[in-house]
Fold:
Amino acid sequence: MIADDRWEGPGWPEILIGLVTYVLLLLSFGMLMGFLPGNDPVLMGIIGSTAGGVVGLGAFAAAYSARIRNLRPFGFKPVSPRWLMFAAGTGIVAYGLNLIIQFTYLAWVGTGDPQGILHAAARGGPLPFLLSLLGGAIFTPFGEEILFRGVVANALNRYGAFAGVVLSAIIFGLAHGVSVILPVAIMVGLLAAALFRATGSVWPCVILHCVYNGMNSIASAFGFAPMQ
Structure:
């Protein structure tokens, strides 16, 4: 008899431990940023660009240590290069959708830039741009994807596509705050969660997220971001 391993992945214990740890680490990170000397927006932007990576990685580590302690059930699985290329293309599409959402927001709500410090870091010169790019377009996508797709979407997938894709994307969006970032994050979350459901691997999701965040950073550095 062949064992059914569909339920050997993360479940509600991992979701709850991961998300509670995420909130606690995010609050701690915000408090620590308040102690930065001089309130320098460039420095705050560099540090802030890594926040998602630090917090996501820490929250994943807490979820990982709960029961399973094996990376493969969390989506650390190889995929074909075609999936990775498809994920990169999806990241470009996501950036285009992001522009539509932001311009629509500007037309309906007006000005407002919840990511001003990140724009400041991207435009702060070669070194701040490089550091913010590494933090925001590589480290943060990795940390966030292994938590929100490797744990949350993964665990919710057992309840069907709506829970695994839509509900997990809403959770991902709410984790980014209630502003124009909310619909943007939900959009990215929908695309990444659909990729995860199709492949069972976090790596296409990480590639999508890296391409999307990287395009955002480059556009911001050259003054092309709608909100800055």
